[in-house]
Amino acid sequence: MLKISRDDRKLTPVESVTLTDAGIFEKYDLELWLSNSFEEFCHEINQPLQLLGKDVRPSAKVGDIIDLLALDEDGNAVIIELKKGSNKLQLLQAIAYASMISEWELADFQKTAGWTDVEDFLQVEQEEVNREQRIILVAEEYRYEVLASAEWLLGKVDVACFRVEMFRDTKATPESEYLAFTQVYPIRGLDEIAVGTNSQGQGPGATPLYPEFLAIINAYNASAPPGLAANGNAPGFRVIHPADWPFKKFLFYNINRKGDGFTSALYVHKDAPPGFLELAKTFDGKTLADGTKLLWEDMEGTRAKGRLIARFPLTTPPETVAKAVHELIATTRPKVNEKRQGSLKPPTAAG
Hints:
alpha+beta, Trna Endonuclease, Chain: A, domain 1, Yope Regulator, Chain: A, 2 domains, 5-stranded antiparallel beta sheet, 14 strands, 28% helix, elongated
């Protein structure tokens, strides 16, 4: 880091110092700085996140605690682990926490944080919360085995590693101290750092879409009938609310990109009108034209009763997924409309 001197038109090095030499504690300094200024930290590392809490116990069966627990806009749980210096067990520790957090239900997240703020932040339905877990590591240095393991997990677990550096300007009055964060893994691609390449057109700092997911959305929307467009801004999630359905919160379709594939589903909320759960279940096991089977999945513990879902590998051509989504809707929507015609009125949301 170089300090600018406008008077003599020179640059002066600012002293780099380790957290240990600066007398900084991992728990009582670094963690508090980041939690108290979480929005600024997220902006610095270009990660839109909502903090749920610090020193969070992932399970009643262990005494360990997660430094910082957050959610991203897709509803994924984000485990943030901080380390002074380096620690070859940092990633292993975070993976253990992620495995325990994967068992959390919606109520666990609601208990950990003020849920009103979280609901406003999310760009997905609550039923999508904690479908996947992500890991963010922050350390001064990284052992080779940590970065090698993160690379090996690519495609299985989303791991990002950031280097934190401390700088001190001893010539300033009063003395000033700074933290800088640099992403060391994964290496950012040209499409992430080049100007004017953001596929969403949302400007600097916007989260880039998965290109293959965007291709699916474009293919679907290109032939979507009026009132059935896939809408949303989240990088891997779009929702389809049929315009003629008076109960949009309680019955809807989505297209999703998660982990090792894509999904499309008809969701049935716990407050959906009577009979719609049973109706959705009647399509369980039906085969679509491309050979994909519709499967019913119960979702007890969430605000959804369940979903009728179709799953596609990441290698599935976008046009194939788009056609399957259209077929899912064409197969189920007429039956839903048939059931709702007449005297059906939208239910009143609880609470």
